[in-house]
Amino acid sequence: MQTLKITESPIWGFFNPQRMQLDYISKSPFSKFKLSFNMLKFAIILVVMLLFVAVTYSQQNAKPIDLVYSTKDGAIQGYDPVAYFTDGKPVQGKTDLVYVWKDATWHFTSDEHRALFEQNPEKYAPQFGGYCAYGWSKGYNAKIDPVAWTILDDKLYLNYNLDVKSKWDEKRSEYIELATKYYQEAVEKAKK
């Protein structure tokens, strides 16, 4: 007499919940969708994890601000910082008359201007590292246009452009106070 295991019975196979589930999935018109949906869930989880890692890494390794805003042309985009005081206007410096201070290359129109800067760079260098004074008053650094400038209390301030300078002119003392606060915080953070 031959014995059948209950799991091998054709009747049991028909009622086997696992077998029914497999048959249902494989015969379902949504079986491809179910696979795609699972892949989509996996992809979303993977993207979220990667974003978390990227944000964490970027916050830990964020490059601090440069102490002086500088382009390929140098600090103040190659303009002579002393000329703002002596000539009363922005003047493009010469490429062969330079001085390196705070990791930035400063250009000058004459040996006399370079000597004045070397003796007292803090007097002639623009405030807030040469970044836009209005930008720092809002808590961020921004590039400048050398023709958007102001000398106030023997200090040189630069702005993003002439429109921003006009806005900055409306509340100079308030903006200078805010910019000083935000710039000093950024400098302290950069030192850490």
Name the overall outline.
elongated
The rounded Rg comes to 33 Å
Strands of the biggest beta sheet: in what spatial order?
1-2
What is the average of the pLDDT values?
83
Q: Compute the number of helices.
A: 9
- Give the N-terminus to C-terminus distance in angstroms: 86 Å
Largest sheet: 2 strands, antiparallel
Strand content: 15-25%
Order of helices and strands: HHHEEHEEHHHEEHH
According to DSSP, the number of beta strands is 6
Helix/strand structural class: alpha+beta
Which consecutive residue ranges, at least 5 long each, have pLDDT under 50?
Answer: 11-25, 58-63
Q: How helix-rich are the residues, as a percent range?
A: 40-55%
Structural topology:
Blueprint lengths: L9 H6 L1 H11 L3 H30 L9 E2 L2 E2 L5 H6 L7 E8 L2 E5 L2 H9 L1 H4 L8 H5 L7 E8 L2 E5 L2 H9 L1 H20 L1
Antiparallel strand pairs: 1-2, 3-4, 5-6
Question: How would you sum up this structure, described in words?
Answer:
By secondary structure, the protein is α+β, with helices and mostly antiparallel strands. Among the domains are: 56 residues, no CATH class; 67 residues, no CATH class. Helices cover 52% and strands 16% of the residues. It contains nine helices and six strands; from the N terminus they run αααββαββαααββαα. The strands form three sheets. The chain has a two-stranded antiparallel ribbon with strand order 1-2. The chain is elongated. The relative contact order is 0.10. About 11% of the residues have low confidence.
